């Protein structure tokens, strides 16, 4: 049985005035960042900074990627109230040892500052990713789909976008003040879909942000074996990707990219690139 979720949407942007280089006052849009405090069975857990586009999915995915719940069926309801800035999670049977499991908190890097409970690397080596490949043509299709996507970033900047693809087909696109929020929202979305959509076997995860260890681990926990970023990768992100055999592709813009790990999953098609210019 799927949980009951409210649909507490909030405006993604707000208008403010700003002074430009000519001394003129412009009206511009900025992301409407807001705080959302999460309570699990009336126990305060964490405060997330978010745009609030899909807060229920964000909370669901956060619980999933923190490994606090193992199945969506464990959640009875998620109720978000923006008047008080709170999300109330009600579980069916409680979360065992929640105090001990959330005692260690790591504040992660990046926009909005993510929080990870417990050892970030715990159980990484138990993750087994499915066999999957991506063609160079599909990679270019993903990059182009992101380029054409209407986004809050285009109108106001200051946010990260994440998406889940099947081949070149975009299944879901999420923006938030932090890339960790966006991937958690996608994780929540996956849990509410059919078994086919829940499986990461034929999926590719895309993010505008850098591939940190947190992002790589969360992708792997979602069962997604290929990640693409228009940014780069950190040392820990690279180490984890290599340990897992996860294909991490960064600096993906236009027809340029760097494949940092598991290159055997990327099927190159050199004819798509065009002739290499001879060195002067």
From TrEMBL:
GO terms for cellular component: cytoplasm. The keyword Cytoplasm applies. One of its GO terms (biological process) is Mo-molybdopterin cofactor biosynthetic process. It is found in: Cytoplasm. Its main location: cytoplasm. Keywords: Cytoplasm, Molybdenum cofactor biosynthesis. InterPro entries: Cytidine_deaminase-like, FdhD. It holds the Pfam family FdhD-NarQ. It comes from the Bacteria. GO terms for molecular function: sulfur carrier activity; sulfurtransferase activity. The active site is at 111 (cysteine persulfide intermediate). Gene3D superfamilies: 3.10.20.10, Cytidine Deaminase, domain 2. PANTHER family: FORMATE DEHYDROGENASE (PTHR30592), SULFUR CARRIER PROTEIN FDHD (PTHR30592:SF4). Required for formate dehydrogenase (FDH) activity. Acts as a sulfur carrier protein that transfers sulfur from IscS to the molybdenum cofactor prior to its insertion into FDH. Belongs to the FdhD family. This is Sulfur carrier protein FdhD. It comes from Albidiferax ferrireducens (strain ATCC BAA-621 / DSM 15236 / T118) (Rhodoferax ferrireducens). The gene is fdhD.
């Amino acid at each position: 049985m799927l949980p009951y979720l409210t649909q507490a949407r909030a405006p993604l942007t707000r208008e403010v005035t700003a002074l430009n280089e000519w001394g003129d006052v412009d009206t511009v849009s900025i992301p409407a960042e807001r705080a959302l405090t999460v309570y699990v069975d009336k126990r305060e857990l964490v405060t997330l900074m978010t745009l609030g586009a899909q807060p229920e999915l964000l909370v669901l995915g956060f619980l999933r990627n923190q490994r606090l719940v193992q199945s969506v069926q464990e959640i009875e309801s998620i109720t978000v109230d923006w008047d008080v800035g709170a999300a109330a999670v009600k579980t069916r049977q409680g979360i065992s040892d929640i105090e001990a499991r959330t005692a260690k908190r790591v504040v992660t890097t990046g926009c909005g500052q993510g929080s990870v409970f417990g050892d970030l690397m715990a159980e990484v080596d138990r993750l087994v990713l499915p066999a999957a490949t991506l063609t160079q043509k599909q990679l270019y299709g993903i990059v182009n789909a992101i380029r054409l996507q209407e986004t809050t970033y285009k109108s106001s900047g200051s946010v990260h976008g994440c998406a889940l693809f099947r081949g070149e087909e975009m299944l879901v696109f999420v923006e938030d003040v932090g890339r960790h929020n966006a991937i958690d929202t996608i994780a929540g979305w996956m849990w509410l879909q059919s078994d086919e959509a829940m499986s990461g076997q034929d999926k590719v995860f895309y993010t505008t942000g850098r591939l940190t260890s947190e992002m790589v681990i969360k992708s792997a926990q979602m069962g997604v074996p290929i990640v693409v970023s228009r940014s780069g990768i950190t040392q820990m992100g690279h180490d984890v990707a290599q340990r897992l055999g996860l294909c991490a592709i960064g600096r993906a813009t236009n027809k340029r990219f760097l494949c940092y790990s598991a290159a055997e999953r990327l099927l190159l098609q050199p004819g798509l690139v065009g002739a290499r210019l001879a060195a002067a």
